[in-house]
Specification:
The protein has 332 residues and is an alpha/beta fold. Helix content is 46%, strand content 15%. The protein contains eleven helices and twelve strands. The two termini are 35 Å apart. InterPro entries: FA_synthesis, Phospholipid_synth_PlsX-like.
Length: 332
């Protein structure tokens, strides 16, 4: 198996990408890992004797986080993101992972790697942490802000297959993000999508409210990209604020510091359950090849987990499975 990584993408690149790749190369010797990066910056981090299954693929360009996505991939055809997506398209690589510019990766995935013929719009699909530690796949969180009911129908099918094959969820429960749980709630989009999804061969549990997400009421949550992105950013902001305030309170005086020492093991487990680093990256579902978006602030552990996720993505035939299911539905 050959997996390419954007060594130049992310807040902590190339260090975090190299660190995670070195660990993954040792953990999975059957995987050939290719770092797409600028040689003067990446080569010293790999070391003089890297694992035999870790390789440097030299690129001279990369896309910065603040660059306009479509313009960047057109101007920088030799950038790590464009090269990685092209290698997947041409079969040189089985999967590509990047923690870089999200918009550029989505644009390159769609324009370079290409969409599955039966998919209208790809979906960016991260795993939201839940209190039970299992996580919930959410799609879409920004790839397609202006979705139509048929797009949400496709998301439900792709998400169910991914949750089953990659996340190991047996008969994954699929929910539709809405403003109420009752049938008939919502706007025109969610009402029509509800009827479309209920006819699919998935375990549809109906409408789901945002307040219930942390409690793991479903395994796959379907949303248009605009609403899903708002949910993502709001959840990240709340988590950051709560943990920040908790730290302030537990270090306020000697008594609270003593309490913090007692509570530390439990708080550490809780923080780990809610840590995005444990869930790898967000697949761009609907493309012809496996492309995974790692979190922009990924550290070495997050990159390592993203590589493991990409391996399962390829090994368990998610994309062929989606294609076969879509063809079966088209045949009636």
């Amino acid at each position: 198996m050959r997996i390419a990584l954007d060594a130049m993408g992310g807040d902590h690149a190339p260090g975090a990408v190299v660190e995670g790749s070195l660990k993954a190369a040792e953990e999975w010797p059957d995987a050939e890992l290719y770092l797409l990066g600028h040689e003067p910056l990446v080569r010293p981090l790999i070391g003089s004797q890297p694992p035999t299954n870790l390789h440097l693929q030299v690129v001279e360009e990369w896309i910065e986080a603040d660059e306009e996505p479509v313009r960047a991939i057109r101007r920088k055809k030799g950038s790590s993101i464009v090269v990685g997506c092209r290698m997947v398209k041409e079969g040189e690589m089985d999967a590509f992972i990047s923690a870089g510019n999200t918009g550029a990766l989505m644009a390159a995935g769609t324009m370079v790697t290409g969409r599955l013929s039966a998919i209208d719009r790809p979906a960016l699909s991260p795993v939201f942490p839940t209190l039970d530690g299992k996580g919930m796949l959410v799609l879409d969180v920004g790839a397609n802000p202006d979705a139509r009911p048929e797009h949400l129908k496709q998301y439900a099918l792709m998400g169910s297959l991914y949750a089953e094959k990659v996340m190991g969820q047996e008969k994954p429960r699929v929910g539709l993000l809405n403003i109420g749980t009752e049938e008939g709630k919502g706007n025109a989009l969610t009402k029509e999508a509800y009827e479309e999804i209920r006819r699919l061969p998935v375990h549809f549990v109906g409408n789901v409210e945002a307040r219930d997400i942390l409690h793991g009421v479903c395994d796959v949550l379907v949303s248009d990209g605009f609403t899903g992105n708002v949910l993502l950013k709001n959840t990240e902001g709340i988590a950051k604020g709560v943990f920040g305030r908790l730290k302030e309170e537990l270090t306020r005086n000697p008594l609270t510091k003593l309490a913090a020492a007692i509570l530390k093991p439990g708080l550490k487990r809780f923080a780990q359950d809610l840590d995005y680093k444990e869930h790898g990256g967000a697949p761009l579902l609907g493309l012809k090849g496996p492309v995974v978006k790692a979190h922009g602030s990924s550290d070495g552990r997050a990159v390592f987990n993203a590589i493991g996720q990409a391996r399962r993505f390829v090994e368990r035939g998610v994309i062929p499975g989606i294609s076969e299911e879509l063809q079966r539905l088209e045949r009636g």
